[in-house]
Structure formats: structure tokens, C-alpha cells
Amino acid sequence: MKHPDNHFHTHQNGWLRAAVLGANDGIISTASLIMGVASSGASQETIVVTGLAGLVAGAMSMAAGEYVSVSSQADSEKANLEIERNALAEYHDLEMQELTDIYIARGLEPALAKTVAQQLMAKDALGAHARDELGLTDDNAAQPLQAAIASGLSFSFGAAVPLIIAAQTALTDLPEKVSLYSVILLAIMGGMAAKKGSANVLRGATRVAFWGALAMMVTALIGRWFGVSF
Prior knowledge:
This protein is mainly alpha-helical. The chain is 83% helix and 0% strand. The chain is built from 7 helices and no strands.
């Protein structure tokens, strides 16, 4: 019989969230940019070049931002591990009691909790404290370069969709097709992400599609206003 718990592990959910956010950002920002420029009355060549510039700039910005953010997280993790390493060297007994108290709080009997703490610390004291006190494991350790690459690529893949549509669609139909296909793709991705996370699929799809459509509508109105004014 299949186990009923089909939830993703925490690090898998984190990876899925980052990928979906990057792709959604790519679709929304690039489609909105294209809609704004198209509504201003620009030529198709200008629209496509602007969209391409938005793709490159957005992907680089996402990658750089993610790298800086995750690097800061990695620095914090390293600092916490160094503090824990020094504490283990200077206050071994207190650290033993601290780990024991953690296991007691999780439901173990005091004697068993002390035995578990002793055995784990005998094998890998820093690893035990990193995992059970600081919540750090190999699976969720910060990886700046990996995060930057994943963020930049997912943004690029998302941004490529409205850009390709804009390049292959007649100028008269361009705004309608870019907005329509972008909203449909956003809804599909929102629904898929919700399903993977065991959330309500319709709510997830509707939420992402609504905000994407709103962003495109606002930029289209701004583009039309500036196009008429200037």
C-alpha cells in the first residue's frame, strides 16, 4: 500500500519554490515590459529588442541578487558553526546537556535523551549540534552559486515565452497573444506548484494568473498613456 504522506521534503520544496518564482518573474516582467512598449505604438523590432534586453537584465539581476542573498546566509551559517565549534571545545559538558534538553523537549525520556546525546556527540559532536540545535544539514545548506544559476536560468526560461510570441506574431495581434498565452502559462505553473505542494490547485492558478494579468494591464495602460502624450 502506498504511504499517504506524499509531501516533498523541505529542501525539495525550497528548490521548487525558487524555480517557480524565477520563471513567474520572467514571464510577468518580460510580458509586462512587452505590453507596455507595444501599447506605446513602438515597432515590432523595438518591442523584441526591448524584451530581449529585459530578459538579459532580469536574469542577471535575479542571479546576482540570489547569489548575494544566499552568500549572506552561507556566511551566517559558517559563523554559527564556528561559534558552536568553540563552545564544544570550551564547554563540552554544557553542550552535552543542551543537546540532551533538546531531545527531552522532543519527547524522549531524560535517560534515553542523555544516552542519545552522548552517542551522537561521540561520533560527530559538531554535526549533531548543527543538525539538532541550529537546524543545519547538508540538504538545506546554502549554496550561492547553485542558487544564482538556478534563479537566472528559471527567469530566462520564463521570459523567453512572451519574447518568442512577440517575435513570431503580427504587430496587430501581438498584445492580445502575449497577454493571453502568458496568463495561461502562469495559471498552469501556479496550479502545478500548488499541486506539488499539496495546496489548492485552483486557488494557486488563479492567484498567479490574476497578479500577472494585473501587472500586464497596468504597464499597458502606462505605455498607452506615454505613447499618446509624447
